Amino acid sequence: MRIDILTIFPGMFAGPFSHSIIRRAMEKKLVEIHLHDIRDYSTDKHRRVDDYPFGGGAGMVMMIEPIERCIAALKAERAYDEIIYMTPDGDKLNQPMANQLSVKKNLILLCGHYKGIDERIREHMITREISVGDYVLSGGELPAATLTDAVVRLIPGVLGDETSALSDSFQDNLLSPPVYTRPADYKGWQVPDVLLSGHDRKIAEWRHDKAVERTRERRPGLLDG
């Protein structure tokens, strides 16, 4: 998979992409992540990428030209499955969406800033709009990093245990069951006996029952699915 991220702050991705699972995925050549500074595509001598909105109002708007030039340059090199704009009013990111995107080959993620991007980019170039929640952040970089992490960890070979992602919360419209590790007895706090029994069927049943119980208590709406 290849992911191209368009941003005016490429340095914000140094931390999230330099550690843990995403770093290992890149080292294994399972994913390529390329950062593109939108300012490099500005024709303004000061590399300006924003301007005042037509009609007035507070805030600035990201200009159409630098974004269009960047996307056009990338599309001239390869076909993209999705050109995604990270925006609070997009479809809310969930596990089925991450599953779907994980089998794509080439993705573009556009990070907005200020009051947003010129609407014509959304109308003519964006194929999908995604939100990470009903709140506003300073820009699309953190949402783009979140989406990248959610997708990359699902690529075969990225996780050490191929079945690990299949048991994550939300994969079956259920939250994950409780998990435990050694020691089995810590200050009198005991691990459930069934998990120490070695009986695979009973353990699987216990985990499913606990997942349903936890989902019913914390996120009952998931059970409607």
Write down the Rg.
22 Å
Strands of the largest sheet, in order across it? 2-1-6-5-7
The level of helicity is 25-40%
Question: How much is the average pLDDT?
Answer: 94
* Secondary-structure element string: EHHEEEHEHEHEHEEH
Tell me the CATH superfamily of the largest domain.
SPOUT methyltransferase, trefoil knot domain
Characterize the biggest β-sheet. 5 strands, parallel
Give start-end ranges of low-pLDDT stretches.
none
Strand tally is: 9
Shape: elongated
From the 3D coordinates, which CATH architecture of the largest domain would you assign?
3-Layer(aba) Sandwich
Which structural class matches the secondary elements?
alpha/beta
The number of distinct helices, counting runs of at least 4 residues, comes to 7
Overview of this structure, please?
The chain is 30% helix and 18% strand. The chain has 225 residues and is α/β, with parallel strands linked by helices. The chain folds into two domains: 2-152, SPOUT methyltransferase, trefoil knot domain (Alpha/beta knot), CATH 3.40.1280.10; 169-224, tRNA(m1g37)methyltransferase, domain 2 (Trp Operon Repressor, Chain A). A five-stranded parallel β-sheet has the order 2-1-6-5-7. It is elongated and about 70 Å long. The two termini are 30 Å apart.
